[in-house]
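input
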Amino acid sequence: MEEYKGYGGTVELHDDQIVIRREGAVAKIGGQGATREIPCSALSGVTLKPATRLVNGYLQLQLGGAPVRDHRGDPNSILFRHKDSARFEELADILRRRVADNVAQGVDPTAVDFDPGESRTDRLQSKTDRLQSKADRLQSKTNAVTASDTQYLGGWSGHTKTYTGMSKKILRVDTNGVSLVAFKTIFTIPWSVIVALEVEGPEQASQRVTVTRALAVGVFALAAKKKSKAAVLIVRTQDGEEALFQTEKYTAPELRTKLTPFISQLRVAQAQSPAPVEAAAKPSGVDSDPVEQIRKLGELRDQGLLTPEEFEAKKTELLGRL
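output
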């Protein structure tokens, strides 16, 4: 075993491994850790930066065929002073010969199982990623709309159980979709299946019960007692379903205002994706009569799923078939 003492650490050269031992304040400040044991078979390259009388040099190991990293904070590099230059030049030559021996013997350093070590750059990137993840979560919470005292009246086949009466929950609309929450998320209707959000007062919602809504929650499901604050959120899906949430946290105008960014984004998405609109306008079993199709397109326009311009363009096309 041969030792090469550097600045803040020592390299030990054994027959089958290289050992780097850290010591002193330099190692602690650099955050390079303590002892590292590296198999010689993992060695794929060596970099030597000569020292001068004013600036320390460094020896850096490349391992497992990985690209060269920044030597600063790299646990696989070691500093040395000008007075130790000859010793580290000797070490670099020996290590380069071992790299050549690996190649000659057909040793694949990428297949060797070893710990490459985490450099200071890696640690900073990891910290940056954690901070970004935290910022994304905070941003998601900032953009979320929540409403307590919420009843789920049904209407979505993805979750058939209703929550009414005393089992009130929390409505949450965020980047994931529309969710019903208690101590944890009960279910979420993802944006990928949502085509529109509508907000109405309970009485207005009761008067506009559609066949789908009636089958899902019953004609009298919305016949709740009048409250000083109450609003019904209707979530329309690509399958023509209407999930109903009734909250006593806000009035309909208040909830509609809070959901305006989400409603606007849905309308933009619908305008840019005509294919789903066609599917909604032509469900299976619908009469192909152009007049009937125009009537249904008019309903989509009134619901905000089609712009007046899109309606007129489609109307002109259908009238041309008469």
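quick obs: The chain has ten helices and 14 strands.
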